[in-house]
């Protein structure tokens, strides 16, 4: 009798242990802190930035009509270039298309010298130390408007691109012929202050996050040649109305720049921006 009572008690306890969880429902699970995924970044968006670097400035002065049989004189000099840029990129799969405008100031982009006439310059009374050409070329400001096409690499962290477009430069171009301080025989060819041209090159950009990126690029700029006749000085026989005809002799100015610069960009989000 006692055994049956004990058996019933054990069976009843087991039944209750099984039934209570079933009717009570599943036990609540402990909450887990899940770190949200970082937003995916791409190159689409409006950006602004700054840049700085060096440029190799090359200038040619050509005596088109062999006025003094001097052919072409060439000069080359490094200079500092720096400024800012603004642009917009659109990414489609791994391809990135963009447009960019930049504005740069140049320091030290000056070429030229005083070239004496004759081989005996500065030697004795028969020398030519007071006769010769004063060549001068300078670029102090340049702007470009360029298209860009590139390929995105390393999960949108890197961008390799090609860029090309138009260039606009401001400066001073002058070729002055001195003749023993005799104004009557001196001549001056003055180039235009503004010159059009084209620009092209390659670049590499790396994104630190969805906003900030750093770039390095190399650009070649060619400025359209400028051919001009004698414009002065006033009182010389080589100006209009003088005893000679200025349109008979021309000088052509040619300039090109090889620029290497680094820059940093900030890309906006929201309107016209990416994630």
Shape: elongated
Largest sheet, in brief, is: 11 strands, antiparallel
Total helical segments: 1
Order of helices and strands: HEEEEEEEEEEE
Strand content: over 45%
Assigned CATH class = Mainly Beta
Number of domains: 1
Q: Taking Cα atoms only, what radius of gyration do you get, to the nearest Å?
A: 37 Å
Give the N-terminus to C-terminus distance in angstroms.
Answer: 79 Å
Low-pLDDT runs: 119-128
Helix percentage: under 10%
Question: Can you put this structure into words, describing what you see?
Answer:
- By secondary structure, this protein is mainly beta.
- It has a single domain (47-267), classed as Beta Barrel (Porin), CATH 2.40.160.
- 8% of the residues lie in helices and 58% in strands.
- The protein has one helix at residues 2-24; strands at residues 45-63, 72-92, 95-107, 110-111, 114-116, 131-153, 158-179, 187-190, 194-207, 212-232, 250-267.
- Strands 1, 2, 3, 4, 5, 6, 7, 8, 9, 10 and 11 form an eleven-stranded antiparallel beta sheet that branches.
- A hairpin with a 4-residue loop joins strand 9 (194-207) and strand 10.
- 26% of the residues are buried.
Strand-helix topology:
Elements: H1 2-24, E1 45-63, E2 72-92, E3 95-107, E4 110-111, E5 114-116, E6 131-153, E7 158-179, E8 187-190, E9 194-207, E10 212-232, E11 250-267
Antiparallel strand pairs: 1-2, 1-11, 2-3, 3-6, 4-6, 5-6, 6-7, 7-8, 7-9, 8-10, 9-10, 10-11
